[in-house]
Design brief:
The chain is an all-alpha fold and 205 residues long.
Length: 205
């Protein structure tokens, strides 16, 4: 039998260092490990994909630095994706749509499903943080484990059920693009309008 458990939070930094060294022959100092976790989160599969990309990027160089991570892990794009969610959770449809246009502008493939994937990944991190709070952690403690910009403004006011509803609707939007019923831009715009209206109605209620 092969153990396939996810490393505990306190062991994640050590796992990243070991994975980089053993699989890719690269060294990461603590500052680089912290930067990678802040940009990506603590999902092993996603982290491994980024390590593979970073190791290719640095080439023969033995060390992956925080500067390499800042250039390659799409930090600005992450902020734009989280900006979409921040606009939705604030009930600010226009702001969310503007951020979505900026996400599409950074998508080299144009109107591609990868942009929906970025939203889905960000939403999963929101859910992870909210579920940690459901388990008894404070907002601050949850945010130490799941990096999300500006999350403290919303996490205490949105339920796990609401985030799960948003996730299901985003999945429906993605399926509509894959089946040819809609394009990515339109499907996500409709999702933004629907979810922002849902948030506005809850606040008003």
């Amino acid at each position: 039998m092969i153990a396939c458990g996810v490393p505990a939070k306190q062991a994640m930094a050590r796992w990243i260092e070991q994975r980089a060294a053993q699989e890719y022959g690269k060294r990461l100092k603590p500052a680089a490990v912290t930067a990678l976790r802040q940009h990506i989160g603590d999902v092993p599969g996603v982290l491994d994909g980024e390590l593979a990309k970073l190791s290719t990027y640095v080439g023969d160089r033995s060390e992956i630095t925080p500067a390499d991570i800042a250039r390659l892990t799409g930090h600005l794009r992450d902020e734009q994706v989280f900006g979409v969610l921040d606009g939705i959770l604030s009930g600010e449809t226009g702001a969310a749509l503007t951020q979505w246009e900026q996400v599409l502008a950074t998508d080299r493939a144009g109107n591609s499903p990868k942009s929906i994937g970025g939203l889905a990944a960000a939403l999963r991190r929101w859910l992870q943080a909210r579920r940690l709070m459901d388990g008894g952690l404070s907002v601050g403690a949850a945010l130490k484990q799941v990096w999300i910009p500006n999350a403290d403004r919303h996490l205490s006011r949105i339920s796990t059920a609401s985030l799960e509803t948003m996730q299901r609707r985003l999945l429906s939007a993605e399926l509509s693009t894959r089946s040819g019923l809609s394009d990515v831009r339109t499907a996500v715009e409709q999702w933004i309008v629907l979810c922002a209206a849902m948030r506005t109605a809850r606040v008003a209620g």
